Structure formats: C-alpha cells, structure tokens
Amino acid sequence: MIFRWVVAAFAEKDFYLDEFRGRTLVLAADREVFASLGARRRLASVVRDLTECGARLIVVLGNAPDSAAPKSSARTRTDPAGLWRRWLGLPRPRSKRSRRVPPAGARSDVVAWSQDESDTRLVDLWRILRVRPLCLVVAAAPAIEVACVVGAGFRVSKLVLIDRVGGLVQKKGRRSLSYLDGSSLDALLAVGEAEFQGFGHRRGLLTQIDSVLDRGVSAVNLCRIDGLARELFTYEGSGTFISRDDHCYVEPLSIDDFHEVERLIARGQKDGLLKPRSADEIGEVLLDGFGVWVGAGHLAGVGALRSWKEGRQRVGEISALYTFTRFKGEGIGGRLVKRLLADARRRKMAYVFAVTTSERAAKFFARHDFEEAAVGEIPPEKWLEYDPARRARARVFRLETR
C-alpha cells in the first residue's frame, strides 16, 4: 500500500500555538516581576504570539495600586489602570466585533479589580473578551489571589503563574519537578511532605493551586518571566506543569491526531533520536501508531507497532517511540510499551523487537525486559534501504511475546 502523506515542516512553537487556538489562558504576576524593560518585553512578545494565534488572554497584574501607577500624561492621567497597560507594552488587538459596547467605567481592554465586587468584574471581563482577545486586570491585591478567582470563575484551560522563583525544585539533588498530577499534588500537600521535599515555603501557593484545579481550571503552570516562552512553546518547558487530572491513557491514533503526531516525529528525527523516514513511512507509522495522553488531553508521547512477516509467523517492531522531554521520568514510555506489547499478543505476534542507535533508548528497552540480539535475528526486510552508516551503529532488542 502506498501512502501519500504530506509531512509539514516541524515548528515547535507552532505546535503549541495550534493547541492554544480558541482557548482562554490567564497569565498572572505581581508588578515586581516586570521591574525591568526586558521582562516587560518578554511578556509582550508572548502575549502577541498568543493573541495572534487565536487564543483569548487575560493578563493579571497584582500589587499595582493606583498610587504606584507609572507617571501619567495629560492624555492618560484620568485612566490609571490604562497606564499599566502602556507600562507593560501590551498590544491592543483590534476588536472582532466593533459594534459591541465596552463595559461602562472601564477602558475597552483594562479592568481595575475589586475583590469585593469580583462577580461584577468577571462580568466586565466577559463583556471585553466577547469583542477582544486580550484584557488586562489590574489589582492592588497579589496576582495569585486575583488569578485564582478569575481562572476558577471562567474555568480556563490554563493558568500561568509567574514569579521570581518559578517551578518547583526539590531540595534533595536540586531536581526540578516538571510535572505534577493530582495524586502527586495530594501527596505533596500531606502533613510535613512539602517541608520534607523543600517546598514548605510554597505550601500556601500549592494549596491555592490545588483549590483552583478542583474548581475547574484544567492546568496550572509555574515559571519565571525569563522562561515564559520556553514554558508555553517548547516540549521541555522551564517550570512546573500541574494538572488535577491524574489519568494517563494510551489509545490508537486517530486521523485528527495525525498532524500533531507527525510534528512530534519530525522533532525526534531532528534530534537524531528517530531515524529519518519518508512521507510514506511516516504514513505507515501513523496508521500503526498509539499516543499517550496525560492530564486534560496533553499528548505526552507516541509509538507504533509495525507488523513484519517472518516465515509463517508475524512479528512486531516498536518504532517511532518518542516522548516529550517534560514528561521524562513519569513512566510515559513504559506505558506506551506495555500497551504495544498487549496489542502484539492480541495479534498473536511471536516476538517484538526494537532497533535504536541511542544509548538512552537501549537502556530503556533493557529495563523493560528486552534482550539485546544480533542484527540477523529479526526479519531481513527490516534492513532493506536502511542507511548503512546508521545500521553500523544500530542495536537490536527483542522480547518474546508467547
């Protein structure tokens, strides 16, 4: 069978911008985070990327009372909230529905927050977001307090909390926690556990995050302003991604997943972790492929089970196995392999093999009970048109399934 699958050029940033299209995000930080011009420019750049891709965005600026507003001009001195938007350098996207009337008593894109009138302010926000993709919320209160009210009130898909500390870093070994699911977060909030792991000073923050996730926010990201773009637009991230949904599930890929997965395969090929494949070969991988999703539908990795004929029996090959950097150490690859092996047994394959040139992948397969084999112990068709230089470095791992 010949597949004519057009493989799009990989663009990691575009991958995430596609995911955010049509979604609502809240970015929140206190004004001290934006003390430098460089920090404000980083925020403005991310905001511009998100709004231009079709996302809706609420930026919450905390600890910003009127008395601390930047210097005004004759044109703006009656609008202290609007001064903060200019100070941050936020773009002013055009209204999608110019006939809509902005909320009375507020700029068309700025809301001065009042905790005592939070319900009214949420209505104001919605009236703005109906016609504009961007709104600034200015509050005298800390940003996280306001962001949690706004995020939970709208049950947004993502709440991004920006501060000077950023993601969670364990005291022992200084290892950064890139991902926390619901059960891990619950364990961390057990009596004394946060303190034991070096997060005692952030227990209050973690408790607020736990609460806002329970109230309908899909995911929370913790990061620093200098890592904001990397946190939102790259696989490895820069902070900590937290989701209440602690399920991790593996399913066969559907056609609606193909464009997302082919970009991931392209990234693996670019990194040298996956062998180069033609468009036809990638099409075959997609049709034989499985994806693993975590949290609220976040793709975390892919893999395929290809079928080969060896004499009168069928054998399987695990190919294009690749997981996001952010989820390394979370058992994502192991879950994929477990599902692929179950599918191989269902299809009565005699054994399953994998070919890799990566030392890290070799150790992974060895940990999952695969035994190293000679290159001649798998179907010879595997090596047809295989790059000779890559074959010279290739290692074969095999696991009996009967």
Please write out the topology.
Layout: H1 12-20, E1 24-30, H2 37-52, E2 56-62, H3 80-88, E3 110-112, H4 118-129, E4 134-138, H5 143-154, E5 158-162, E6 168-169, E7 176-177, E8 179-180, H6 182-188, H7 193-196, H8 203-214, E9 220-223, H9 228-233, E10 240-242, E11 248-252, H10 258-270, H11 279-287, E12 289-294, E13 298-310, E14 313-323, H12 332-346, E15 351-356, H13 359-367, E16 371-373, H14 388-393, E17 395-400
Parallel strand pairs: 1-2, 1-5, 2-4, 3-4, 5-9, 8-10, 14-15
Antiparallel strand pairs: 6-7, 9-10, 11-12, 12-13, 13-14, 15-17, 16-17
Helix pairs in contact: 5-8
Structure notes:
This protein has 402 residues and is of the alpha/beta class. The chain has 2 domains: 231 residues, Carbamate kinase; 153 residues, Aminopeptidase, CATH 3.40.630.30. It contains 14 helices and 17 strands. The strands form 3 sheets. It has an 8-stranded mixed β-sheet with strand order 3-4-2-1-5-9-10-8, sandwiched between helices. It has a 7-stranded mixed β-sheet with strand order 11-12-13-14-15-17-16, sandwiched between helices. It has a two-stranded antiparallel sheet with strand order 6-7. It starts with 11 loop residues before the first helix and ends with a strand. The N terminus is likely disordered.
| Overall residue-averaged pLDDT value | 84
For the CA atoms, what is the radius of gyration?
Answer: 25 Å
**Please, how many helices?**
14
Count of all domains: 2
Provide the helix percentage: 25-40%
Largest sheet: 8 strands, mixed
Strand order of the largest sheet: 3-4-2-1-5-9-10-8
Report how far apart the termini are.
29 Å
Instruction: Provide the low-confidence segments as ranges.
Output: 1-10, 98-107
Work out the number of β strands: 17
- CATH topological fold name of the largest domain: Carbamate kinase
**What is the name of the CATH class of the largest domain?**
Alpha Beta
Q: State the shape.
A: elongated
Global structural class: alpha/beta
CATH superfamily of the largest domain: Acetylglutamate kinase-like
Percent of sequence in beta strands:
15-25%
CATH-derived architecture of the largest domain:
3-Layer(aba) Sandwich
